[in-house]
Specification:
The chain is of the alpha/beta class. The protein contains 12 helices and 14 strands. Strands 1-4-3-2-5-6-8-12 form an 8-stranded parallel β-sheet, with helices on both faces. The protein starts with a strand and ends in a 17-residue tail after the last helix.
C-alpha cells in the first residue's frame, strides 16, 4: 500500500451470482467515504471481485490511521492500494494541485460514498458534507480525462415526508424535510442531475443501511439499533405494549448487500439512471419487536391499550414511548416506498436479490448488543465532517 501521508472475508450476495468480476483490470478506482462502514463493505467486495484494480482512497486526515489499519488487514494487494489524505467535501477534495491533477488524469471509476443521512447532525455539517461532496464530484468530473462512471450512493430520505410510492425517476415530489441531512442530500442529487452532461453518473438509493452481515460491528448506531436497545433494557417483569405505528414497515438493507449492488451498478448501470434497492418483504415493526423480545427474554403485550401503557410508564422513564424514543421511531418507520423496477432488473442481470430484514435480524440484534457494550449507542456531538458520514 502506498500512502501520501507520513505514518499513516469476501462478501457474498444472495441468490445465484452471474460472473461479475475482473471488469476493472488495471483501472484506477477512486473511493470516497472510507473508512465509513459502507465503504469498508465496498472495499471487501472490490478485493474479491477486482483484485487487479488500482484502488485509490481519499481519506480525511483524522481517519488516516484507522484507514491504514483496515487496509492492512484487507485481502487487497497492498501494492495496488493508495491512501490519499484529503477531504471529499473540500475544494479540490482538499488535495494539492499535483495530486488533484493525478486524479484528473488517471481515475477511471469513482464510488462516491461520502454522504450523511444522520437526522441528528447539525445543519452546517450536513450541507458541507452533502452539497460540498456533490460539488466536488461535478468539478472533478469536468476535468477527468478517463472517468467512465461515477456511482453515487443516496438514500430514501431524499423523499422527506412524502408518503406512498417513490419512483426511481422522481426526486421533487412536493416533500418537506424532517432533517437538514435529508434536505441537503436531495439538493446534492439535484445538483448532480443538472450536470449529467459532465458527469457519467448513476445514483443508488436505499433505505437505512445496517452493518455488514458476518463482520464485526463497524456501523454507526441508527434509530433501529436504539429501539432494539430499548427492548433489551426494558424490565423483564412488565409486558411491553406495542408502540404507535407498530404496523409500519421497517425498511433496511445490510451494508454487504449495498456494496454488492453498488458494484453491480458500476458494471451494468446506465449513465443518468437511478436505481432503487429495498427489502422485497419488509416486516412490520411489530414483527421486528416480537423477534427482539424473544432474543432478549422480554415479553410483548399484543393487546396494548391504556392499562399496558400505564404499567410501562410506571415502570420507569426509559420507555420507547418517551419523546426522544418517539423521534427515533419516526426516523425510519413508515415513510416513502421505493419503487424498485430498474433496480430489480439490474439485480436479476447480476444474479442477486435483496435480503429481507427478518432473515438477518439476529445479526442486527447481536450488533446492537455490541454497540451498547462499546458505548456507541449514545448520541455524539459531531464537529468534523467525517463524523457524520456513515
Amino acid at each position: 500500500m502506498t500512502t501520501d501521508a507520513l505514518g499513516a472475508a469476501p462478501v457474498a450476495a444472495d441468490g445465484n451470482q452471474a460472473p461479475l468480476r475482473d471488469r476493472f483490470a488495471e483501472e484506477v478506482v477512486l473511493v470516497t467515504g472510507f473508512p465509513g462502514f459502507r465503504a469498508q463493505a465496498l472495499v471487501r467486495v472490490l478485493a474479491e471481485r477486482e483484485p487487479n484494480a488500482l484502488l485509490w482512497l481519499v481519506v480525511p486526515p483524522s481517519e488516516l490511521e484507522a484507514a491504514a489499519r483496515l487496509l492492512a488487514a484487507s485481502s487487497f494487494p497492498s501494492a495496488q492500494l493508495r491512501l490519499i489524505p484529503g477531504e471529499p467535501c473540500a475544494i479540490d477534495l482538499g488535495l494539492s494541485r499535483q495530486t488533484y491533477a493525478e486524479l484528473a488524469a488517471q481515475v477511471e471509476r469513482w464510488f462516491a460514498l461520502y454522504q450523511t443521512t444522520d437526522a441528528r447532525a447539525r445543519r452546517e455539517l450536513c450541507f458541507r458534507v452533502n452539497l460540498g461532496g456533490a460539488r466536488e464530484i461535478a468539478e472533478l468530473s469536468k476535468v477527468a480525462e478517463s472517468l467512465s462512471h461515477v456511482t453515487f450512493l443516496s438514500s430514501s430520505v431524499v423523499f422527506g415526508d412524502h408518503q406512498g410510492d417513490a419512483a426511481e425517476e422522481d426526486l421533487a415530489v412536493g416533500q418537506g424535510f424532517r432533517s437538514p441531512a435529508a434536505e441537503s442530500l436531495a439538493l446534492a442529487e439535484a445538483l448532480l442531475r443538472r450536470k449529467l452532461s459532465d458527469i457519467p453518473l448513476s445514483v443508488v438509493r436505499t433505505p437505512q443501511v445496517l452493518g455488514a452481515r458476518g463482520q464485526p460491528p463497524s456501523a454507526r448506531a441508527l434509530g433501529l439499533h436504539r429501539v432494539l436497545a430499548m427492548v433489551a433494557a426494558a424490565p423483564s417483569d412488565v409486558p411491553l405494549p406495542l408502540p404507535p405505528g407498530a404496523q409500519c414497515a421497517v425498511q433496511a438493507l445490510p451494508a454487504d448487500f449495498v456494496a454488492e449492488a453498488l458494484y453491480a451498478v458500476s458494471v451494468l448501470g446506465t449513465r443518468g439512471h437511478v436505481y432503487h434497492f429495498a427489502d422485497p418483504e419488509p416486516p412490520a415493526l411489530a414483527e421486528v419487536l416480537e423477534q427482539a423480545a424473544a432474543h432478549f427474554g422480554k415479553r410483548l403485550e399484543q393487546g396494548g391499550g391504556a392499562r399496558a401503557l400505564g404499567r410501562l410508564l410506571l415502570s420507569g422513564p426509559s420507555s420507547w414511548l418517551s419523546q426522544p424514543s418517539s423521534r427515533v421511531l419516526s426516523e425510519w418507520a413508515g415513510g416513502p416506498q421505493l419503487v424498485t423496477r430498474a433496480g430489480d432488473r439490474l439485480l436479476e442481470r447480476a444474479g442477486m436479490r435483496a435480503p429481507s430484514l427478518l432473515g438477518y435480524l439476529d445479526s442486527v440484534l447481536r450488533e446492537t448488543e455490541e454497540l451498547k457494550q462499546q458505548g456507541r449507542l449514545e448520541e455524539r456531538h459531531a464537529t468534523l465532517p467525517f463524523e457524520v458520514v456513515a
